[in-house]
Amino acid sequence: MAVGGGLNFMVIIVIASTLQIASRSLAGAGDMVADTCARCSRSNPNVNYTLCVASLSEYPESRVADLHGLALISAKPLLSGLATIASVAKDLRDKTPPVSPARSCLDACMEMFRDAEYDLGSAVAAIEEWRYGDAKTSMSATMDAPVTCEDEFQEQDMAPPPAIKAQSKPLFQQGVISLAIISLL
Ligand SMILES: *[C@@H]1O[C@H](CO)[C@@H](O)[C@H](O)[C@H]1NC(C)=O
């Protein structure tokens, strides 16, 4: 009886300390996203801390990721943002009369977004291969695309379509976050 009680006690100690280790490593992982975003917003005031934490936390793998992993994860919202803005540009283009200045701007934008998707792929490949200088160059090119698209309209004295502008700012903000994380590597 006394031996049984001792064993039970041991089992409880082992379970308790296992749980403690598990909860400590979970808390530690959660802090990694918050810590990284805090470091990013300190090094670059344009980094939106709230958006940084929210967008990285959306991916469950961020809970166990190191800085290198977080840099890769930070590219994901850009990939979906680019797909969205590219499809917005295509929809607008298909509704715009052919051989019009707006149509040629939208054609140019579609090409820019295609290039940006390619640049983003290069940025991810560069992160995976620890070529962080190249990653920064490609990421900068990626996030320039929506700005360059808007410039295309402004150069022709036209206002950029609101649907494009609505997608362009969040995409740029995600790019700022990703670039800041890569810069910490
Ligand atoms: C930062 O991001 C949050 C969440 O997306 C947003 O609500 C807030 O307006 C953003 N702040 C700035 C200054 O853009």
Automatic annotation (TrEMBL):
Signal peptide boundaries: 1-16
Transmembrane segments annotated in the record for this chain: none
Q: Name one Pfam family in it.
A: PMEI
**Any one Gene Ontology molecular-function term assigned to this protein's record:** enzyme inhibitor activity
Report domain Pectinesterase inhibitor positions.
28-181
Keywords (alphabetical) are:
Disulfide bond, Signal
According to its record, what are the GO cellular component terms? extracellular region
Q: Which family does it belong to?
A: Belongs to the PMEI family.
**Protein name (Swiss-Prot/TrEMBL):** Pectinesterase inhibitor domain-containing protein
